[in-house]
Structures are given as structure tokens and as C-alpha cells.
Amino acid sequence: MEEDSFVPAAAVKIAISGGGIGGLTLALALKKNLGITATVYEQAPQFGDGVGGAIGMYPNGLRVMGDISPSLLNALQTAGRPYMYRRWQRHDGSDVAVASERFLFPPTSRLHANPWIRWLFPWFKARDDHEVTSLRSIGIRRWKVQRALVDACIEAEIPLIMGTRVNTMLVAKDPKNEAVHLELSNGQSKTYDLVFGCDGVKSVMRTSLFGATSDPAYTGMVCLMGVASFKHAKDGICFPSSSTTHCHACFYSTGEDEQIFQMYFPEEEKPETWKVLAPEDAKEECVKLSTRLKADGWHPSFVEPILKSHNVLRVGLRSRDPIPTWYHLATGRVILVGDAAHPPVPYIGQGAMMAIEDVGVLVRLIRRLACRSSGSSLYLSFERVHRHVLPAYQALRIPRTTKMLASSNALGRMQLERAAASAGQAQVKSKSVIVRMREIWAILVKELGIKLQVFWYGTLPVMWFGSGYEYSVEVDKWIEANAKDLLLE
After folding, report:
1. Which residue, of 101, 231, 242, 446, has the fewest CB within 10 Å?
2. Is 481 exposed, middle or buried (CB count within 10 Å of its CB: 0-12, 13-18, 19+)?
3. Do the strands 258-266 and 248-255 form a parallel or antiparallel pair, or are they unpaired?
4. What is the pTM of this model?
């Protein structure tokens, strides 16, 4: 076999299609870890402050940000609002269970997980306080995440070309001169050594690689979400479920006097209604919803924010498994990242975190499997990216994102079933006593299940699969387990 060729990493030409959270994080990670300055193309003409919704950021994603730059991590933590607690509630405002966000960090042993140990020895902690504090989960407006990343890119002198998208892509077939030719919406043609597709669910890069793929299937659930200029009643992220209305919800703070609401309803598929609502339509929708919730006995702390909302959006939740291949098989010169490769994950708050994890895993694999150092210089082998890095990237990420989607769907079903069982017993008063008693029993059993899990584990263990992921550890474990097959010198 021919010896792999290496080129100076700093001379490698890379384009990133998509300047969202995944694309900008990737650009920063490439600059920090490989010394490569990528060019980012974003179709939006500009990023606007104060627009859009919000996301949750969790330890698994924040760890990647902190490894890129402690100042970036600090900027995100400062711009967001710590959750502190995770509350499962009834629609009347009473708590079913309350979990400290400290327990989002999975226990390091059975001893750490034991509730009696936690009760008898409250000072006995499974994790270092600094790690728990620096990686604490936060609610944050999406535009603030974008702003922090853009500011970091400007500081790192990373080119960000706004108002420009990739129209078409052609991968050269010459094995001695492999390159990717891009036709851009501004009329320019550019050639790059590597191209990363971070252009979301409707990815042009994915379509260019594999043709049209099937749309994600509608889950039967619609989410009405908005931003409320209203102080959150209780510390933490709250998950109320109703015994009178067939829905469940999520409320969390993103600032001292700002919170996000998300209301989930089963509805027929009506894509024409899934959009950012005009102010007058949003007001009408929110007044109608708040009137309904008030009549159904919802606590004012859930109703009042809806009346004081803005930036309201209605979206249908869709789902599908990740696509089976995430890169150009013949050359390895085009690679998909984030929603372009796998769908966003509803319910569990890990959609953006999965894209950030992709970045952390991919860049660490490139650094460890495809690079050599010579003095202060770093050299990159495209052959090794193709032969070693990309198969490892898929081996690590496809099972992970598939299981994460399944965990998210399971959590969503649990919340919906709580609401469905409750609404059923509340709305049909003509049912027999036995039927109604069975439905009440079903509610109590579901609530008891949540209580027991939170008591024993400190939180719902399904959350650990997301927040407890340490990308660098997983990459290093995979390399160690496959060292004989890699045969790296």
C-alpha cells in the first residue's frame, strides 16, 4: 500500500455550508485544534438580535464549547439562565417530582447513585463542584448562542459570508487531484479540499450527495412556542401535564424577566399552519389558548406568560432515523454534520447538542487519526480522513443519534400518556365508576414512576444518555478498541 501523503494543515482549504450553531462551532473547532481557517457560507442576509426561540444547552454540548474556548463557554453561561431544578408538575402548579440539575451528571458508581448515601452524607458528591458549575445546564435564546459564536469567529478571523448559499456541488473524480467545486448563489465558483454540510434538515449538501431523501414523518404532535416577558414563578425547567386538557408543556427561564413556553397538542397534519405567527395572529392564538387553559383550571403561572408572549411559532414535530451514510464514499471530501445527517431531537432538549457533539467527535478524530506534528507545524492526510476518520465518525455518531432519538420519543410519549390518561378521566363524566377509577389509577401509576426514578437516581435516568456523554472519552475509547485495525504509525 502506498504511503499516505501529508500536507500542512494550515494550507487546507475548507468550506462550511451553513452558519448555524453547528457550522460556526465546527469552524471554531477546526481553527482551535487544527489551525485551519474555514470559510463559512450562510444563506441568511444577517443574524438578528432578539428574534427566534430558545434552546437548552447541556453538559455534553457545553463541554465541547469549553474545550474550544473557556471564554466562549463563559459567554454562553452568562447569556443564558441556569435551570437549577427540573420539575414535573400537574397543571394546577403542584409538583409531582423535583430533581436538582446536579444529577444530570450520571453517577460514577452505584454508591454515588444510592439515595440513602445522598441523604445520610449530603457532602458526599459524585462530581467536582467546578465541573458541575461550569457545565450547568442553561436555557438560552437561540440568537444569543448565535451571537456568542459569531463574536468568537470574528475574534478568530474566520470568514463568514452572509447572504450566500451553496447552489450546486461537484466532486472531482481525478484521484490525484481530488477537490470539491461549489457554485454559490452570488454567482461565484469556488474549489475546496474539504466541504462540510451543516445546512440543516433541508440540506442542499445531502441532496447533492445522495439525491432527494424522504421527509421526516409527522409524529401527530404540534408545538406552539413563544417568548414571554414574564418572570418565571419557580426556579427550574418545568414540565406540567394536564388532567383536564389533552396536552403537556414546558416552561423555562432564559433571563431574569424572560421565559419560554412550549405547549404540545395532538393535531391533524396541517403544514400550512406551521410558521412564525404574525403579531395579530399570535395574539389571537394566545388569547384563545390562555382562555381555554384558564377554564380548564391551569395555574396562573402557566396562563399569564402566554398572554404576554411574542415571537410565537407553531411547528409540527417530525421524526426519522439518521441517514445511513454521512460522507462522500468515493473520496471522503464532503461530510455531513448535525441536522443534515440526522433529524433534530424534540422533547429531550438535545437537538443542538447533537450537532455540537458531532463537531467535537469529528475534529478530535481528525486530530488523532489523520494528523502528524513536526515541530510546531501540523500536517493532515486526506487519505487518512477518508480511510480512518469518516468510518469512525459514523460508527460513533449513527448509533448515538439513533438512540437519542428513541430516548426523546420515549420521554415525549410518557408526557403525552400522562396527559391523555388524565384528560380522559376528566372529560368523560358519564363513564362508569370502575372505568374512571382505572383511569385515575393509571395517572397515579405514571406519577409514581416519575417519583421513584427521581428519588432513586436524583433525576430521570433517560436524561443521562444525553447530558452524560463525554465526547473526548468516547473517541479515545473507540481508538483504543480499534488500534489493531487502524495500524497508525
Report:
1. 231
2. exposed
3. antiparallel
4. 0.90
- Number of H helices and E strands in the chain, helices first, is 17, 22
Name the residue with cell 481553527: 31
Beta strands in 85-148 (DSSP E): 85-90, 95-100, 138-141
Phi (first) and psi of residue 255, to 5 degrees? -170, 175
Query: 357 or 485: whose pLDDT is higher?
Result: 357
Tell me the C-alpha distance between 232 and 192, whole Å.
Answer: 48
Rounded alpha-carbon distances, angstroms, from residue 50 to 43, 144, 250: 19, 8, 21
Q: How crowded is the C-beta side of 291, counted as CA atoms within 13 Å?
A: 6
DSSP H or E run through 324: none
Q: Could you give the CA distance from residue 322 to residue 342 in angstroms, rounded to a whole number?
A: 4
- Give the whole-angstrom CA distance, residue 181 versus residue 194: 10
* Nearest by Cα to 307 from 289, 331, 333, 321: 289
Highest mean pLDDT among 64-68, 103-107, 309-313: 64-68
pLDDT, the chain, mean: 86
* pLDDT at residue 31 tops 80: yes
With a CB cutoff of 8 Å and minimum separation 6, the contacts of 141 are: 52, 53, 54, 79, 227, 254, 255, 258
- Specify the pLDDT at position 110: 47
CA distances from 462 to 43, 106, 144, 354, 444 (A): 36, 10, 28, 16, 20
d(CA 85, CA 227) in angstroms, rounded, equals 20
| 413-454 tens-digit pLDDT | 665 665 555 444 444 444 566 766 776 677 788 889 999 999
Residue 120 is inside which H or E element, if any? helix 115-120
Which segment of 93-97, 146-150, 302-306, 464-468 scores lowest on mean pLDDT?
A: 464-468
- Rounded to whole angstroms, the Cα distance separating 162 from 376 reads 33
How far apart CA 254 and CA 19 sit, in angstroms, is: 23
User: Whose grid coordinates read 416577558?
Assistant: 229
Beta bridge partner(s), residue 318: 218
- The grid coordinates listed for 315 are 411547528
CA distance 218 to 210: 22
Answer whether residue 165 shows pLDDT above 50: yes
Is pLDDT of 379 > 70? Answer: yes
